[in-house]
Amino acid sequence: MDFRSDNVSSVSPEILNDLVTANQGTSTSYAEDDLTRAVTRKLQDVFEHPVRFFPVLTGTASNALALSILTPPYGGIFCSDEAHIYYDECAAPEFFTGGAKLIGLPSLNGRISAAGAEKAIAKGISSGIHHAKPSTVSITQATELGTVYSPDEVRAIASIAQQFGMHLHMDGARFANAVASLNVSPADLTWRAGVDVLCLGATKNGALSAEGVVIFNKDIGDDLGYRVKRSGHLASKSRFISSQWLAYLTDNLWLKNATWANAMAQRLSAGVAALPMAKIVFPTEANEVFVSVGDEILEGLKRRGVRFSEWPADEGTVLRFVTSFNTPQADVDACVAAFVATGCVPV
After folding, report:
1. What are the chain's domains?
2. pLDDT per residue over 265-274, tens digit each?
């Protein structure tokens, strides 16, 4: 029962099969291959909009490179105080932008608000040259706390960014989970709502190692290819990244995988919510479940072979459980049974 992360999961068989197929013969290298071009066309179908696509190997590289085309070295990036770019990317955004400042905003359940962003940006502008120039707003979809932004919420934040001449960046490491949760079109969550650049992830949702920068705004990103190369993320055998993307996007595999992961999270959340001595901390809207427990339950779960992450919290102990495209339902039910065995008996 391993719920530590969706990164601990294996690779979708469909993706592995396409990797084997891609391993036939020779192919042009450095993202000039037919498969990479086909991915761009496929993404344009998925998003119903012209896009430029730059495949990379990691989510950190995707975010940092995307932010580097949106933010000057003296710029400010406004994001949630829970954001992955804020806490978990070892200052890569600051490095790749040449020194831009990340400005964490108070969030509710992982989401920033348009009003909160407007207040912080206005304050920064009022300080003039003494403050990092407000340049970019970044949101995560789904958020680090397993919640999602509705299209209206994205649109409201984009409106504030546009009001101040800024860009909107979306960290979409779990974008598929958000689309599946909201049952809306990818277009409605991105460019139609005002997103300029999406960092689209596949690794957490069944790929081997496939991330990428998707640019919707035709007025930006002309130099991103150079930045990708300089960062060391222009893969020579790019077909092996792009073959993963093609399999991922074909026959809605990406949404099927995310739908299953979300369903398993809902099942786990509902099972734990019915128990005393355990509290669901944030709404379960994607594939992450956060549970507040006492030390006795924590140790009891460990003894029974349940694996999870311990999450930083102001009070008590919060455990994070993450489901994936191939989480067995039996594991979810066994996890709930392990809670019961520790003393969380249903009333």
Report:
1. 12-251 (3.40.640.10), 254-341 (3.90.1150.10)
2. 999 999 999 9
